[in-house]
Amino acid sequence: MTWRNWAGTVHAHPRAVHRPRSTEEIADAVTNAARGGERIRAWGSGHSFTAAAATDEHAIDLTAYTGVTDVDMHAGLVTVRAGTTLRELTTILDALGLAMVNLGDIDAQTIAGAISTGTHGTGASLGGLATQVAALELVLSDGSVVGCSPAERPDLFQAARVGLGALGVISTVTLRCVPAFTLEASERPEPLEDVLDGLDEDISGNDHFEFYWFPYGRNAVVKRNNRISGSQRSRPLGPVREFVEYELVENRAFGALCRLGRAVPALVRPIGAVTDRMLSERRYSDRSHRVFVSRRSVPFVESEYAIPRAALGNVLAELRAVVPLLRDPIAFPVEVRVAAADDIWLSTAYQRDSAYIAVHQYAGMPYREYFAAFEAIVSAAGGRPHWGKLHSLDADALRERYPRFDDFRELRQHLDPDGVFSNAYTDRVLGPVGSRR
Length: 437
Known about the structure:
31% helix, alpha+beta
């Protein structure tokens, strides 16, 4: 069969595909591949822009391995199978009266894929999704099943929460959840200069703050999401307005403009100069997962880097200066978010409060010059690339940016000495392992 990722940037032709419905079947698939001297990678929803899940040998398709296996309401702990998507998970949690404390704006990823590549949301006091993990169960390269947590195999826990699937196949994830809560959302266009002048105040003064900026426009579209008390009544967007603004304007109309720009590149800049004025102000409140998540149907490619939060203003100034010099116009916006420091070895926010800058281009339009210029700017600020998004760095470059990089590689060598869980992507970003060096 042919496998492709969501963005269409990666294709693979695995020799064998395993579709387990139990941990035992995952272990059998791993053991069979290892005995034959072959490699195996786990698939989720394919939402990574990189080749992280690609393999031409054995693949484990986890899309049927879903659902909650255990709930401890008193402790707020929920254990879920690795193939469960965030969309499925948040629906289940909401029915239980629980929620994840933070989410990104896309919920198509599986829980295992989301944490393994460092998926995050936004919020100055909140870490990425992997910081909400209380325990993991993994299948190792010898087929054994092990658990890890802060108390049990803590080094494995610190490595595997953002582990790129290089240490084992995650079978279950135990999440530390919170009581379900309501967010009040304020979304509106504002002059970009005003947003940049007020960055520190907005970042510290809101539970969740982000903005995106169309490269040829004057405005940024700013999103401020804040908790409201349970006694306050939710005021969600009505179904008609939600359909018009999100589906018609942000997906269908924007998609049509992108297609027009791809067909006639000279139109991209004038279109971009007015796109940010198409969006109106909206204010509403709803269950947290309905506010965090946006429906995105316009295809794109993306690169994202985490930088020290203090460097955000300078990096954005450099990026704004570069964009007008590019040969090819940019049809998609730049997105800015923030996250708190954490202690996960390969987390992009390891030991530093971080700002995330994501650059995008409409699918099928040239992007390499733009992404290379962006990468040069953020690399000069010590940027760390999102593991699931496009970048050019290899293990030697990444080793300089992660204090625990060698510790991760040493643990990987111990757990997977024959490189059973490796592929071309892990060979590049982590280095080959064992006999495959």
